[in-house]
Structure formats: C-alpha cells, structure tokens
Amino acid sequence: MTAPKKPMASTKPKVKGAQKVGRPSSYTEVTADAICEMIASGTSLLTICALPVMPEARTVYRWLEDNEEFRHKYARARERQADLYASQIIEIADTARPDETDLARIRIDARKWTSGKLAPKKYSDKLMQEITGRDGGPIAATLAVSKIEYEIIDPAANQSPEGIQAPAGSGPL
Questions:
Q1: Which are the contacts of 15, defined by CB distance < 8 A and separation ≥ 6?
Q2: Which of 86, 28, 82 is nearest to 53 (CA)?
Q3: What sign does the dihedral 77-82-83-84 (CA atoms) show?
Q4: Could you tell me the maximum CA-CA distance found in the chain, to the nearest angstrom?
Q5: Which residues have a Cβ under 8 Å from the Cβ of 120 and sit 6 or more positions away?
Q6: Tens digit of each residue's pLDDT (9 = 90 or more) over 4-53
Q7: For residues 150 and 27, what is the distance between their CA atoms, to the nearest angstrom?
Q8: How far is CA 27 from CA 23, 47, 55, 80, 111, in A?
C-alpha cells in the first residue's frame, strides 16, 4: 500500500494582502526629506528632478499617490515654500532700486500669486466665506407645510386643476 500524497506546499509567500508586481519603489526617506527641504527653500520640483541624484518628476508624483507620509511631508514643504515667498516680497520691495521697479513688481506679483495658490487660506486675495449652522455644525434646512389648497375649475366636469379626472362618486379632490 502507498501512503496518501500530501498536497504540495505553495511557493507563494503567505502574506496577507496582494503581492505587488513590478519593479520595487526607489523611495527612500533620505531622498524624500531632501526633496521636501529643497521645495521649502523655494526650489521648484522640476529643478530638483533635473539634478542627477534625484528621481524623475513622474516618480515623485507616483510617490505622492502611493505614500501617505510623503504626501504629508510634501504638503508641509509647500506651506513653508508659500511662507518663504511671502517673506521674500517685503525684501524685494525694500531692496529694489529705482531703475529695477518693473522687475521688482514682476517678482513680487509672481510670489504673491504662487503664495496664494500654495496656501490660499493664508495668502489668497479672495475672500473666503464659510457658512455653518448652530455651534459650527451643518446648516439645518426645514420645510413646514401648513395648508394645501386647490380650486376646482369646472365642478360639472369633476376635474382637479391639473386636469386629472376624479374617480366617480368620490366627490371633489
């Protein structure tokens, strides 16, 4: 007699969740921190990604989609960048020479616009109005119907105003 065969062990790893397919991510905390520091210091993402030691911009955008921690770091770096641009506005205005006023105005407007887009609650020219209900909660909408009236147009035809025929013997609608 032969012993019953044991089922073959699976070669797939027994890990909860799906196994990712494809090349492993090149994401590292060191690179992510360096990108965020350069953004906070005013360097654009395209300039950063043009450096030979940095990943391509599409890789950074993929990291932003896939990595929640990096997404938060990046958002804070953009807020710091907006603060930097806002503080540079005063410096540009104070140090502009009379023959550089047009250039200074362009630099100031660019920083004002960018700051307003990066941190609209803080630097936007738009007046943002938020309407809330009692104690900051949602607005409550209520509808109260006190009386519904209708008029019979032709009592002989026994019709309602909308032209709907009333059932025989039911009286007025």
A1: none
A2: 28
A3: positive
A4: 104
A5: 126, 128
A6: 555 554 454 555 555 566 556 788 899 999 999 999 999 999 999 999 99
A7: 71
A8: 12, 19, 9, 22, 30
Please tell me the predicted confidence (pLDDT) of residue 33: 95
Q: Output the pTM of the full model.
A: 0.57
Residue 157, classed as helix, strand or coil, is: coil
pLDDT tens sequence across 81-140: 999 999 999 999 999 999 999 999 999 999 999 888 888 888 877 666 778 878 878 888
Token pair of 73, please? 């770091």
Instruction: Identify any residues that bridge with 165 across adjacent strands, giving them in sequence order.
Output: 159
> Among candidates 171, 146, 145, 148, which has minimal Cα distance to 158?
171
Q: Which residue has the tokens 């905390």?
A: 29
Report the phi/psi class of residue 24: left, alpha or beta, with left for phi > 0 and alpha for psi in -120 to 50: beta
In angstroms, rounded to a whole number, what is the distance separating the alpha carbons of residues 163 and 152? 10
